[in-house]
Design goal:
This protein has helices at residues 49-55, 88-95, 100-105, 110-118, 122-138, 154-167, 193-210, 228-240, 256-263, 276-283, 293-299, 306-312, 332-343, 347-353, 356-361, 387-391; strands at 2-12, 30-39, 42-48, 60-63, 69-72, 74-76, 141-147, 174-182, 216-220, 244-249, 267-270, 288-291, 316-318, 378-381, 400-403, 406-410. The protein has 413 residues and is an alpha/beta fold. Helix 5 (122-138) packs across helix 6 and helix 6 packs parallel to helix 7 (193-210).
Length: 413
């Protein structure tokens, strides 16, 4: 059955925008008084509301009686939704002047979340993940990457990835799982970091493939986690087995982005510490540079050098990094709006960064634009001017969310 949704005051297709480099708002393709024609899970056509009604008289009409702007469904390409507990104590200690290392030494940090997450069973974690995903869906995020990484053993990482798989059947959002068993070397591991990585690669990777739990391997390359020398054999083994790679890179010190580029990773995420050499390397590659403004806000540190990355020609995506430690806000639109203010990003650059460029970080080419053949993932904002969306800095939320041609969230009626 074909469906026609409209009339829409503006439809921003994001079609014809390039994957790499800076963008001007004048490049945006905007249909006015428009409609979106969908068939099944896909968009068939975007065009004049009047013309589409005349051309397709037998379609099911979804006629709107208010002003709406349509955007592609948002893509959050870096989250940690599957976790237990809270790190509110860490946040308070940071704001009181304690350092990351001091907090970790006092029992906080990532290991605190690992301990709290390990105490929960798979079904409970699946419920938590579903709740988080459905909140993002209500805010217009229709595709969500979800990492493990709070298990840090073969058995516990399996539990998390099975929970993510279970959660995917309880939300209309697409969940794209990533294995982050290389988040840090667990405190209860008796050997070296390299020995830990070897065990994960030899014992966990085959099970991920056997159970179809994920096709993506992530790793934290940082002084407090794994060095480039330690992580490279691990990632090379993952690549040999057919996994795609993504890397937590250059958050506090450099090194991770070079590993990402050298290994052809889909993305290098964080990049707050990236300098000119790292920016140039990313810009000359097809590795997506993923900015995580939520972590900068949560930790009170510099933002990813998004403006420099774009001006050098990099692919820039923006993600929420929703996690219980450094980025508890989990509001993609608000964070992207704030990043735009500090890094002077055009509206076109922000919208590209949370739609089709974010999809590219996940290897997805069937979403992120409103054009024929793309998934019918789109969201409707209660305004007549698309510029209001970022201007409201996350306070304006979509009133209608369509996922694969179905109406999944609404406050419209």
């Amino acid at each position: 059955m074909k469906k026609l949704i409209g009339p829409l005051r503006q439809v921003l297709t994001l079609d014809q925008l390039p994957l790499k480099g800076a963008l001007r708002d004048e490049q945006l393709e905007i249909f006015t008084e428009a409609g979106i024609l969908i068939e099944g899970e896909f968009i068939q056509k975007v065009g004049s509301w009047t013309d589409l009604k005349q051309e397709f008289p037998e379609v099911e009409i979804h006629e709107l009686d208010r002003d709406y702007v349509a955007l592609p469904g948002l893509v959050d390409c870096h989250t940690h939704l599957c976790f237990g507990g809270s790190r509110a104590r860490d946040f308070a200690l940071r704001n009181a002047g304690k350092t990351y290392l001091e907090i970790a030494a006092a029992g906080g940090g990532i290991w605190d979340t690992v301990t709290q997450t390990r105490s929960l069973d798979q079904d409970t974690l699946a419920g938590i993940t579903t709740k988080h995903a459905n909140r993002l869906l209500s805010e217009g995020v229709t595709s969500i990457e979800v990492k493990s990484g709070y298990g840090l053993s073969v058995a516990e990482e399996l539990k998390l990835l099975r929970a993510i798989k279970e959660a995917s059947s309880s939300t209309a959002a697409d969940l794209i799982p990533s294995c982050l068993a290389a988040h840090l070397c667990p405190k209860d591991w008796k050997g070296s970091p390299s020995d830990y990585l070897t065990e994960i690669a030899e014992q966990l990777f085959p099970l991920l493939l056997k159970e179809n739990l994920c096709t993506r391997i992530d790793a934290f390359v940082e002084k407090s986690a794994f060095s480039p020398e330690e992580i490279t054999p691990y990632l090379e083994r993952a690549k040999q087995l057919g996994f795609e790679l993504t890397i937590h890179a250059d958050q506090f010190s450099c090194g991770g982005s070079q590993v990402a580029v050298a290994l052809g990773a889909r993305s290098a995420d964080h990049l707050e510490a990236s300098g000119e050499a790292e920016i140039k390397a990313l810009a000359s590659s097809n590795t997506v540079a993923v900015a995580l403004p939520g972590a900068s806000i949560g930790l009170g540190m510099a933002f990813t050098p998004a403006r420099k990355l774009l001006d050098q020609g990099a692919i820039l995506a923006i993600a929420s990094d929703w996690n219980p430690g450094s980025a508890p806000m989990g509001d993609l639109l608000a964070q992207a709006s704030i990043l735009a203010t500090f890094e002077k990003l055009s509206t076109a650059e922000v919208l590209a960064g949370i739609t089709f460029r974010a999809a590219a970080a996940l290897g997805l080419t069937d979403r992120g634009k409103l054009t024929s053949g793309q998934l019918a993932d789109f969201i409707l904002f209660p305004t007549a001017d698309y510029r209001e969306i970022l201007y409201q800095q996350g306070k304006m939320k979509p009133e209608g969310v369509w996922k694969k041609g179905s109406f999944v969230q609404s406050t419209m009626y």
